[in-house]
Amino acid sequence: MSTTGTTDPEAAGPWGARDGRETAGRLLRAATRSGAHLVAEAAALVQGWAVLADPIAGAVYSTPASAAADGVHAAAAPQEHPYCVQLPAAGAILVLAPAPTTPAEHTGHVAATTAALLEVRGQRAAELRGEQMRLHTTLIRLLLAGHTSVVTETLGRNTTTATETPGRDTATTGTGTGTGTGTGGLCGNRLTHVTVYRLAGADIPAAHQVLWRAVRPSLDPYADACTLLGRLDGELVVAELHHGGDDGRVLRLVSRVSERHHLLAGMAGPLPLAEMPTAHSGAAAARHSATPDRRIVPADAVGTSRLAPLLPTVPYARWARSVLRPLAPAHRHLLLVWLRTGSKPRAAAALGLSAGTVRARIRELARLLGADLEDATAQAHLLLALRAPGPDDGGNAALPPGPSGPDRLEALPDGLLDTEAVRSWAYGLVGGLEPHLRIALACWLRHHARTAPAAAELHVHRTTLTIWLGRCAEHLAQNLADATVRAELHLALRATRNGPDDPAALPRRGGRTYRRL
Description:
The chain has 517 residues and is of the alpha+beta class. It has 19 helices and nine strands.
């Protein structure tokens, strides 16, 4: 029988069905190992490079590693990379750059099969995600309750319950750039510190899902860090456990998610793992200083006074040490959180206590300090004392003995604010305010940033006062919603006043109007 004109479907053309089955088999075997192996196998099959690019996380996997930037750029601007094949894959973009000799049919088959397998892996990850999210929330609550060893032991044992999300797995190969944060096995023993982020906003549920996919928290037995994500009391809490320092990857992801979903975030750490409650409350206090222009605020930047470095070190540190002597470290932390957040209910939410408990403790601390902590000046002085350099900073190490008897919170030592450096700082901050704005701002600060009672004392409408405060914020270039900023403004106004900033001296021209001077 003649075979002229017949074809063998197994070997027709440069790329036939047999090649297709072998290619699919190789990709399927790689997919059973990890997404990193899958992407690496795809790169080998097209004899070029392959990158799985996530819009937030960047290059999830890259083979070789040097192709990561090209892959991300190709996913963002496909028209500039016409030689690349791109397909959506489980919320990310698979980018293949084949060798010039690789047949187009073969490249297309590899791309389609790889993307389909990534989708399957993503669906499986989605089925496990709810359970894993509940586990993460439970672990965060245990850390806040002080059960550090329980959490680290749990993480060390969980080597077989790894979560997997599109494109990131529990194992990575040397050909991938994926460095998923996770723990397990030996990792639990290496977790010594924690960095905490607390995010708030209207779009928390969506942000949780997006950040989960971007961070890809797995339980990797060889990872150097573990990222826990949980929703507690309407907030999104991210706790990055590590061994003393982090590489900033989670910070970059939290920053991108905050921008995209219009969230405000506070960050605290790294702190020892046993100080997780302190980091948790510090992050909440920092979040209250965040603005749309600065969506993530570190806790160590909140309350960091521009005034404190200008004060004479010896009398300043001696006064702070004397004033705070009756307080335990836990008392100081509570007061610092209260002063940073600006209100007792906010402090209660940050500390995980009831508002009544916080009020009762502050009343007791006021008795210990012998001061009226409801007074704005006392609060500003207290924040200044809490931010004074301690022994670890060299500011309290070898102080000469002070006068007999404890110092009072209401009275600063003679000459502490009466220096050329402090006067220059104060005039630079509030010296250019018009008289009516200065009087209005001082009155508002005395009333703890409450507009209604301040407007009543000034005998102006609340709307008028709100407009004036907006002009103050614009002139001063300061965020008046920040409690620590308000404390410094209060001290600056007191340091620069020539007479009392009395509401009765508000320039007027009859009725409730005022006159510019």
